[in-house]
Structures are given as structure tokens and as C-alpha cells.
Amino acid sequence: MKQFNYTIKDELGLHARPAGLLVKKTGSFKSNIQITKNDKSADGKRILGIMSLGIKQNDEITVTVEGEDENEAALELKEFFKNNL
Amino acid sequence: MITYTGKTVFNGIAIGKIAVFKKKDKQVKRHHIEDTDKEWMRFNKAKDAAIEQLKNLYDKAVAEVGSDGAAIFEVHQMMLEDMDYLDSVKNIIDTQSVNAEYAVAVTADNFYHIFASMEDAYMKERAADVKDISERVLTILSGEVSDNVLTKEPSIILADDLAPSETVQLDKSKVLAFVTVHGSTNSHTAILARTMNIPALINVLMEDYEELNGKLAIVDGFTGTLYIDPDQSTYENMKEKQEDDRKKKELLKELKDKENITIDGQRIDLFANIGSTGDLASVIQNDAGGIGLFRSEFLYLEKDHYPTEEEQFKAYKMVAENMAGKKVIIRTLDIGADKQVDYFNLEREENPAMGYRAIRICLDRTEIFKTQLRALLRASAYGNLAVMYPMIISLEEVLEVKKIVEEVKRELDAEKLPYKNIEQGIMIETPGAALISDILAQEVDFFSIGTNDLTQYTLAIDRQNTKLEKHYDPHHPAILRFIKMIADNAHQAGIWVGICGELAADSSLTETFLKMKIDELSVSPSYIYPLRKKIRETDVSKL
Asked: Does B122 sit within 8 Å of A15, measured CB to CB?
């Protein structure tokens, strides 16, 4: 299992467009991906669940990756958050 | 005459009849279904058809407003394919043995309430999205053909609210303006109206708006006013205002996408000066050929700590990507003098304009400089970036800067981070640099003349001292001689030269600059069209 924290910098938070990009990204991995904010979790491959977390600017989220390609997935997702959010 | 006010989303004047856009009230009836598998298949067929429609809408929106504005329709497709959404629909059909319409309506309602209860205005908008996609599926399930023909003649569209898909589907040649009772400036409809240049008002609070169908109305997007049954004088005033606006927009349209070329065929680049990423919209609206001066100070001024490499990288990358291949020249940190930042802990100086500032700080505190260069080089992989260094006075400084850039590149190579070999230029804003510009030109890729500082240093006039204003003459022959000399030295060395100070926007000097064969003028975005007009009317051979 791989896990990392990230604090959202985008002023609109995890809004529709990056949520769409994120789901495209997570969908390309075999691993299970969980996004957690304040004890509430959502499946990282489901856009409505992610958006219903209501992630805003300065919120800290935890990304948990588990599965055969977890190393690669965690690395690429870290990079994704840095570049897009 | 009745007057309503609302919030302007896009300005402009529209005069015409009102056409009320009424959503078809979809009363969803619940009924018992025997074969739930068949019902689930029926839903899936409708869902696939809806996704097909959304794909077409996406293409239509890309053509009309570009891929950024169209992205919402891609997100809508993802929402319709979301497992939580599909599981909910399937679960309701299976466990309650009910029709697909009912399952969709209940699912939509559940998600609608999750989003609508959020405190975040932007996320609240997602409630409208869920409703929008569900209504699309319901329309397909009902077998109705949704017709977009609202009116035969061009009208002012009045609605409670408009979903993005409804906005894009409307036949634009029939839309004079949008007016909605609800909606927010964050909504995609507002964004679409803006990119389509259609006058639009939102939050126009009114009751019984449906009764206004067919009435004559005027939308004044400049003041956010809606007039119903306007009286004669209002009508005439607005007609005149509309004509003025039309003429202004026509002039702009005439100049849009036109080259900055003189009658006798001499070209010059018109770039924009910006002070933060927030200025990007006006750069694009004013058709700038690039960004000639991106003042990076804002990244430092708006923070209470040194901006990190990532923070800077994100800002530079964003600008590079938004300018889509057009040149973006980022000026490295120019702090000190009149721009002070607490956390830099700079000592008070007697004469700050001639003091510890800009490149002098950067070459002293190289860690700050290197962080900026790393961010900048990394962002260069995403567009067409160039870098320029302020307040240069000597060849040694240039050589030292270039050495540091090489070090940073080696670091990036070692970390396998991509970057481009970007153009490096210097600001010529001191008499010292101007006088040795022939030597400096051998070492850099371009010059950008900073006329504000060049004037203050050459004429020994403090820009901050209001008593000296009458002596501050940027048309002084000494300044113009300097500019000519710098341009000649640049061209002799085979590099290009631009002007990025206030003087660049001075249209009484445009002819002079053209004669000097200046390659680029970088000005505030609003000066670009007036300068383009001036350039296109100039014949350098007759000067």
C-alpha cells in the first residue's frame, strides 16, 4: 500500500475539470485508489464520489493506492496533483 | 416601462422580443416493471444515446468556445458513466421493480441534494450538472425529440436558469441576449455566454417572468438593466448606445487577427506586459502576439514567505500553456527600490533606486535565484518561454547569470526533468548597459529596453518625486539617441530588440520606433489595438 498527503492549492478546489482529468488518470491504473478528506473517503475512479467530498483550496487530502501497480500509480498521481491542483 | 436589474456576465446592448425558455416539465411516473433486466437494458441504451449526444455537444462547444469551455461536456459524460450513478439506478430498478425513468429521477435527486447542500458555491453548481445529465436521459427514455427551435426571429432568451447543454444547443443566430432569473457568474452558462460574446444578465429577480413572452425588451449589459416595454426616450438612448458599441466592436473585429504591418510592409511584434496570471484574459482578448514582460514579482509580493519552486512552476506553466505556443518572456525577480517585501529583510537605503535590487540581490542570494530559474526552466517544457534579467550593468553580471543557468540545467538533467533551451535576454535600463550594448549583445539572445528606469537614470530624475514631474521627459533626445544606439548594436550582433517601458505605448513615437527597426513593443493589453491601427496606417518609406 502506498499513501501520500497533498494540500490543494487551486483556488476553486478540486472542481469539475480537474476532477475529470483525475478520473481519467486513476482509470489508467489497476490499483484501488482512495481519496480521503476528514475521515470521508471516495473511490478515486468515481467522479461523483470525488466531487461529493467537496474538496476546497487548502484542504489536505490523503491518497491511498493499493494493487499491483501501486508504486507507479502513487508516483504519477503525486505528479498529477502537483501539476494540476 | 418596467425595469429590472441583475448581474452582468457579458456586456453589450440587445433590443428585441422576449422568448421565454421553458423547461418541459417532466413528470416522472413510477410504475411496476416485471422484467427488470430488460428495463436495465433500456436504461443502458438511453444512457449510451445520451453519451453520444454529449460527444456531439462537446465537439460543437469546442468549435464555438474552445476546449476549455467545452470541458464540462466531457465531465458530463464521465458523470453518466460514473459507477455510483449507475449502481444507484440499477439498484433501484432491481430492488423496487420500477421503471428506468423513476430510478433515474430518484438517483438524480439524491445526488442533487448532496451537491446543493454544499457551502462551496462552485460545488453547488455541480447539482445543476447532475440534473442536466439526468434530464437528458429522461428525454431519451420518453422517446421525445428535444427541439431546440425556440423562436423564428432573433430574441432575448429569458429563463429561470440555463444548463450548459441548453445554452450550447440554442441556435446562436436566434439569440440576442441571455437573461436568467437565477444562475451564478461561476456557472458554465455564464462562461459560455462570455466566450460567445453574447450580452447576458443573471440574477434578474422577477416573478411571473413567463408572462413576458413576446414583449419588447432591451438588455443593457453595461449597467445590468433589463427594460420591458421601453418608453420612447429609453428606446432611442439604447439604440444610440448600441450603435456606438457596434462601431467600437467592429473596429476591433477589423483589427483582430490582423498583422502588425505598415503600409510598406514592415512588421513589428505587439506583446503585452502583465503583472500576474490574472491579467491573462485581457492579453488574449486584446489579441497580443505574446507576453513581452511578465513581471514575476507578484509571486513574491502576495506571499509572506519565499514562493516555492512548485508555486512558481505552476504559475509559469499556466501562462505558457494558456499562451499556446506564443512567446512569453518572464523577467526574473525585480525586487528592492519601490517594491519591498518584508521577508527579504532588506535594509533601509538612502537611495534605493540605485541600491540593492533586482539582479544584484539575485546574484548575491543565489538560492532564491536558482529556485526561480528551476521553476522557469521546468515550465519551459510546456510552451514557448524566454527569460530576461533586469538591471544589468556589466558583462560580468551576464556571464555570471549564464553560469548559474548552466548549473541549474545540469541539476535538471541529473533529475531527468525536461526543459527547453530558452532564449535569454537582458533589460537595457541603465545608461551603463546602453553604452556597452555592443559588447552585451554578443552574449544574449535579445534586448528589452526598459524606458522608465533608463529615463530616470539618464536624466537623473527620481520617478517617485512628484516635484520633478515636469522635468521627467521620456522624449528627451538623450533617451531617443540611447534607444537608437541600443537597437543598432542589437541588430549588428544579429539579435532582436524590444521596448517594454511605458514609452512603447506612446503612439506619438510609434513612427520613430518603426524607423529604428525596433522588433517588438510590449505594452499594457489595452494599447494593443490602438497601436496596431497606428502601425497599419504608417508608411515608413515616406517618413
From this structure: yes
Angle value at C-alpha B301, between B429 and A82, nearest 5 degrees: 110
Contact assessment for residue B150 and residue B157, using Cβ atoms and an 8 Å cutoff: yes
Structural domain range at position B65:
25-141
Domain that holds residue A69: 2-84
Q: Grid coordinates standing for B140?
A: 431519451
**Mind listing the pLDDT tens digit for each residue in B214-246?**
899 999 998 999 999 999 999 999 999 999 888
* pTM for this predicted structure: 0.55
H-run or E-run covering B114 = helix B100-116
Distance of CA B378 to the CA centre of its chain: 22
Check the annotation: does B136 bind a ligand: no
* B56 in any annotated domain: yes
- Residue B213 pLDDT level (bands cut at 50, 70, 90): confident
Residues 6+ apart with CB under 8 A from A10: A18, A57, A84, A85
Nearest CA in chain B to A12: B122
Cβ distance A16 to B71 less than 8 Å, yes or no, reads yes
Residue B321 CB coordination number (10 Å):
13
Distance between CA atoms of B84 and B78, rounded to whole angstroms? 11
Do the bridges between strand B2-5 and strand B225-228 make them parallel or antiparallel, or are there none, so unpaired?
antiparallel
Q: Helical H runs in B256-290?
A: 280-285
Instruction: Confirm or reject contact between B198 and chain A (CB < 8 A).
Output: no
| Short-list B365, B323, B431, B398, CA closest to B356 | B365
Whether B321 has a binding-site annotation, put simply, is no
> For residue A52, which residues of chain B lie inside 8 Å, CB to CB?
111, 114-115
Residues 93-122, chain B, touching A (beta carbon < 8 A): 111, 114-115, 118-120, 122
Taking the CA atoms of residue B83, residue B89, residue B90 and residue B92 in that order, the dihedral angle to the nearest 10 degrees is: 140
Contacts of B125 in chain A (CB under 8 A): 16
Q: Is B124 on the interface with A (CB under 8 A)?
A: no
CATH number for the domain harbouring residue B290: 3.20.20.60
Distance from CA of B137 to the nearest CA of A (A): 17
- Specify the CATH number for the domain of residue A24: 3.30.1340.10
Distance, in angstroms, between A47 CA and closest chain B CA?
6
ipTM of this complex = 0.86
